[in-house]
Design a protein that fits this description.
The chain has 375 residues and is of the alpha+beta class. The protein contains eleven helices and 13 strands. It has a six-stranded mixed beta sheet with strand order 5-4-6-3-1-13, with helices on both faces. A four-stranded antiparallel beta sheet has the order 10-11-9-12. The structure holds alpha-D-galactopyranose.
């Protein structure tokens, strides 16, 4: 990837820049919990966005996207916002840094990535984190790593129309090889959790059904949660119990009730999974993953037919845990599967999915890797 990027950098701008990269992410459990002040359990993966970047002593940013095969130029003032979606991520990062007092100038960049787009692996967070990390390093701004993640999150909110939580950018920036991270999204305290389940593999099965979080469905879920929290009288749903939810049943819509029921259940499941992991009890971890899947499908309604099919098939194949991962509306399932069942599961998933939907799912074994870095 480096060679390809450099070719384009040299062709467009001449000479050499510095390489930076940031990762896509998985999440073991804790979905749609981040913006509810609750817990998530993500890790960075060995798929990243990588950029070669150099200051250009002007007030213009000039960027080449290899994957989209486009060149964009923009200034650093609010009215300079580019119209291309991918370039808005980079523009947003620049603006969010400036809003925080960072004095930066123009730069040239070429970038590419191998985080599959629309698969729920946070390619956009990887893009934001790569540029936030690089800009901070190039202008020696001394921004805390956690703040770099917030810069990516604010970019989504203010320039891309997605009121996302902090999980994706957090994982992309802070990830550590071999470790998952449990983040408390209310206090923002987190701990690294070495994750190497003996006798099991973690694998993603990508339905290749594309999801698009921008627009209403994601933000609608968040609004539902906020309405119920306000009705109960708590800041976040994380602070509400099932009893408190039941007590307001007549005051909220049935749809909002279902959304909140899922979130309150999911908060407990993350805690249960942590306790089970400490005991090496992967059967419980897996059972909770299935519960999450069906909660996301039936109560939160962010699954789709193809992903429900994959979860049902995984169960039939004896897979320990399987669930839709990420925001939903397509993308991947994450599967915890015993070594000895792995090959048979993958073969069946490919064949039976293909027979029903006319294409094979993509398979990605998970390798938990480092987050944002210079390379
Ligand atoms: C998307 C968002 C995250 C999180 C997940 C669902 O990936 O960007 O903040 O809410 O969906 O867990």
């Amino acid at each position: 990837m480096k060679t390809r990027i450099h070719e384009q950098f040299e062709k467009n701008f001449g000479g050499n820049g510095t390489f930076y990269a940031s990762a896509g992410r998985i999440n073991l459990i804790g979905e749609h919990t981040d913006y509810n002040g609750s817990f998530v359990f993500p890790g960075a993966i060995d798929k990243c966005i990588m950029a070669e970047i150099r200051k250009n002593d002007s007030d213009k940013v000039r960027v080449v996207s290899l994957d989209i095969n486009e060149y964009v130029e923009f200034g650093l003032k609010e009215e300079d916002a580019p119209s291309q979606d991918w370039a808005r991520y980079i523009f947003g990062v620049c603006r969010e840094i400036q809003k925080r007092g960072g004095v930066i100038g123009g730069f040239d960049a070429a970038f590419a990535g191998n985080v599959p787009l629309g698969a729920g692996l946070s390619s956009s967070a990887a893009l934001e984190s790569t540029f936030a990390f690089a800009i901070d390093a190039m202008w020696q701004l001394g921004i805390e790593k956690f703040e770099l993640a917030r810069i990516g999150q604010s970019t989504e909110h203010n320039y891309c129309g997605v009121k996302c939580g902090i999980m994706d950018q957090f994982a992309s920036v802070m990830g550590k090889k071999g470790s998952l991270m449990r983040l408390d999204c209310k206090t923002m305290e987190f701990e690294y959790f070495p994750f190497k389940p003996e006798g099991y593999k973690l694998v993603l099965v990508d339905s290749r059904v594309k999801h698009q979080l921008s627009g209403s469905p994601y933000n609608d879920r968040r609004n539902s949660c906020e309405r119920v929290a306000a009705t109960i009288g708590v800041e976040f749903l994380r602070d509400a119990s099932m009893e408190q939810l039941q007590a307001v049943k007549d005051k909220v819509s049935q749809e909002d009730y279902m959304r909140a029921e899922y979130v309150i259940g999911e908060t407990q499941r993350v805690l249960d999974v942590c306790a089970a992991l400490e005991k090496g009890d992967y059967e419980t971890v897996g059972a909770k993953m299935y519960e999450t899947h069906w909660g996301m499908s039936k109560l939160y309604e962010v699954s789709c037919e193809e992903l429900d099919f994959l979860a049902t098939l995984a169960k039939e194949c004896g897979v320990t845990g399987c669930r839709i991962m990420g925001g939903g509306f397509g993308g991947c399932t994450i599967n915890l599967v015993k070594d000895e069942l792995y090959d048979a599961f993958i073969a069946r998933a490919k064949a039976e999915f293909n027979a029903k939907y006319g294409h094979e799912p993509q398979i990605y074994p998970v390798v938990i890797s480092d987050g944002a870095h210079k390379c």
